[in-house]
Amino acid sequence: MVDEQLRARGIGDERVLAAMSSLPRNVFVPTPVREQAYEDHAVPIGFDATISQPFVVGWMSEALALDGTERVLEIGTGSGYQAAVLSRLAREVYTIERVPVLARRARFTLRALGLDNVHVFIGDGSVGLPAHAPYDAIVVTAAAPSVPNELIAQLAPRGRLVVPVGVAAIQSLRVIRRDDEGRVSSRDRGAVVFVPLVGERGFRAPS
Fold first, then answer.
1. Position 132 in a domain
2. Which of 18, 124, 153, 182 stands the most exposed, by the fewest C-beta atoms within 10 Å?
3. What is the pLDDT of residues 60-75, one digit of tens each?
4. Active centre residues (catalytic)
5. Is there a domain that residue 167 lies in?
């Protein structure tokens, strides 16, 4: 997976590649679809959520430019796999999930792997997790209709926010940076497709 889907397609951060090599992706995938864990596509995990394609996990992790000292917030815990990768790359990881069952499953899996620097919360991640802000980096693993101002406000100086933005069918991956004076810049990294971010600053939950 790492050599064929990540390194061969341009993921060059050796820390990201090592993190993804060290983790058993299959334990984050439900048993009925576990044989798809290492395939080159997203895999459904229930509740209209997915575990992202390995390349996308690597791409987003690399875009955060982590050196191991950071406090990171993940919006959309899902299976817990992205949080697990981040746990190898950052000092502390906070992750929030709106679906309680997914949050509990992810917490169990992360604890079973001994990843005790990951803290799982249940709630509306579209407004971030202000109680533990500021964060050196924030990654959103679902597509927002626009960049939530609340997330920018929770970035520390020199913080980075990686978020898919756009309509439900296709989005662009944005990398947003906040400088020491609080000024914000944004760069488009390319097209992606994610499930919708549901919440106060996201899309409405399906009826």
1. yes
2. 182
3. 999 999 999 999 999 9
4. 52
5. yes
